[in-house]
Structure to design on (227 residues):
């Protein structure tokens, strides 16, 4: 072997040695910069952070978890029909009891005030209708009662609450409604807000925001339907 050939082989060997080291180093840098690999190194798949404001979702007993998001009056009406079917089919086809089902309905945006009782509607029905554009279908006038709790109009909220339905009521929207009502009536936003909260339907609770509650419920194992 000539000296020149030997020098060429040594040069190639040195080049590939450095190239391999460069790949190894590049691999280490790449691993640190890749989110999936970094996540794996931190202990596995994504786990959402939990907050005590959402712990009530875990306190509802049930073998199945279901959350329905209904931000409009029409959607709220549909949600009641679907939830009634959900309870019935689980009972008739799966031999499950109502208590086996953890079911949450989120009242937010234009459906928020349907989570309040008749006292609110008797006093503020006309003002509420300005915001919801949902008149009484029978009279075409602003309702003076919560139409989703009138027994001759179909499935009622109260009937579903008796079966275990829980209501999550948007606090952000409630404060917005209170401010709008106060502006027209000359009251205070805080005063009207306290009045609305005092007239929540049974099994209803304020949540920081309806859209956030939808997210948190899914993170805690609830399947979602949107109406």
């Amino acid at each position: 072997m000539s000296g020149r050939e030997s020098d060429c082989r040594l040069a190639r060997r040195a080049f590939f040695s450095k190239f391999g080291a460069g790949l190894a180093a590049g691999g280490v840098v790449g691993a640190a910069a890749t989110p999936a690999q970094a996540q794996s190194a931190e202990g596995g798949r994504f786990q959402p952070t939990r907050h005590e404001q959402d712990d009530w979702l875990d306190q509802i007993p049930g073998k199945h978890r279901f959350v329905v998001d209904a931000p409009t009056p029409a959607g709220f009406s549909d949600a009641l029909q679907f939830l009634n079917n959900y309870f019935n089919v689980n009972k008739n086809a799966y031999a499950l009891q109502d208590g086996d089902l953890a079911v949450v309905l989120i009242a937010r945006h234009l459906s928020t005030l349907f989570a309040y009782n008749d006292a609110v509607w008797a006093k503020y029905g006309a003002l509420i209708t300005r915001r919801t554009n949902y008149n009484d279908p029978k009279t075409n006038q602003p309702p003076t009662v919560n139409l989703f709790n009138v027994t001759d109009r179909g499935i009622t909220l109260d009937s579903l609450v008796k079966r275990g339905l829980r209501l999550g009521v948007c606090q952000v929207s409630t404060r917005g409604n209170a401010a709008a009502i106060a502006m027209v009536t000359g009251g205070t936003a805080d005063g009207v807000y306290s009045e609305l909260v005092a007239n929540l339907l049974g099994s209803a609770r304020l949540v920081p925001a309806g859209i956030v509650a939808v997210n948190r419920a899914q993170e805690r194992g609830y399947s979602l339907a949107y109406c």
